[in-house]
Amino acid sequence: MSRTIAIGLSLLTFTSTHAAEGTVTFEVLTPEAALQAARAALENCRASGYQVAVAVVDRFGGVQVVLRDQL
To answer: What 3-state class would DSSP assign to 30?
Structure first.
């Protein structure tokens, strides 16, 4: 019985330690980088003769920058 408890406790300790290693890190898009990307896309489209609106989103789909060419 005590051997079963010891094995159970060791498994519990191992799984809780393993679960703590699941931290996810990521880099965030800065407003300056988002604006620079949007301006570059807008200028490229203007040079090709297109009048467009440009939106830059982050990795979660949140809008960071929206630029619209003049009508």
So the answer is: coil
